[in-house]
Structures are given as structure tokens and as C-alpha cells.
User: Fold this.
Amino acid sequence: MLPDVRERDMNLKEFDESIRRVKDFPKPGINFYDITSILTNSEAFGYCLEQMNLWIDELEVDTLLAVEARGFLFAAPLAQMRKIPLVLARKKGKLPGKTWCEEYSLEYGTDVVCIQQEDIAPGSRVLLIDDLIATGGTLKATAALVKNQARSSLAGYAAVIGLPFLGYEKHLDDAPIRTLINYQGE
Assistant:
């Protein structure tokens, strides 16, 4: 098990400073919050895992569902440490075998997220994990798979970064949302 987060020396200001900001990426006017800088900083990465580990207890989770692809980076070590299943949510055509899929809207079009049917046990209590929550579209679609297809319950949503100014809370109002840090569009 990970040590209690209170034992770590990192504070929220230091964690914020560990996140690289890239202006005008991928296009002008967009501020990109790059979590790869967290991965190169073992203290910041450990801080993320410790906090998410606490959420697993708080929300009484027995299965983690990671959203492609950066969600995998945070969910995989937690699932291994907790000895609980890790389910992957991927784009259509990336998973073998029988899948459940859900289409969702993007700014310009649609996309599809899928999970393998055999990977999630009915009745599981699932925490969805991603690196960043923007509009909440991908997480909303993934949650629909959990509740409607897998016949499991949604324990909550977890991410390193939240962008509440994009309105994700109105799409994800069916379960608790946990983020380590929120940005308001600065």
C-alpha cells in the first residue's frame, strides 16, 4: 500500500508547478495542460497515486476503468497495488473479442468508446480514471457502458486535472467527481 498522502512533502502549489502548460496547442487559443511532466517527476506522480488511492477507499471501489490512453498510466499501478481488476476503455476497433460500444459527440463529429464484455463483472462498483476532464463527453459515454451494458454501478469519476469552465459537471452529475487540481481557463 501507498503511504498516507499527508506523509508526502508535496503541496498543491508544488503539484501545480509540476504541470507543464503549453500555450496555443494543439491550435491557437488552446492552453494544453501536459501531464507528461508529472510522469517525469516521481514525487508528483506519487502524489497522484496516493490521492487516487484514497478516493478508491472513500468511494468503495472494486474495479478501475481507465480511459485511453493516459488514464491507463494512473489506473494500472493502482489496480496492481489494490489487487483489483483494471478494465480498459478504448476507441472502436482497438479491442479483440466481444465489446460494448457507445458513441458520443465531439466538437466536430462523433467518436466511439468500447470495453470488452468479459472484462467487467456485473455488479462491480467502478471508478472511471482519466488524466484530464474537459467537457466530460468520453467519461459520460464510458459511464453509460458501465451502467447500461455491464450492469455495474458507477462509483465516480477521477482525474488528475479538471477544466470545470468547459462544463463537465453538467454531463457527469450522476456520480462524485474527484480531481487533484482544477484550472479555470487561464
The radius of gyration is 16 Å. The CA atoms of residues 143 and 179 lie 17 Å apart. Confidence is low (pLDDT under 50) at residues 1-7. Residues 60-182 form a domain with the Rossmann fold fold (CATH 3.40.50.2020).
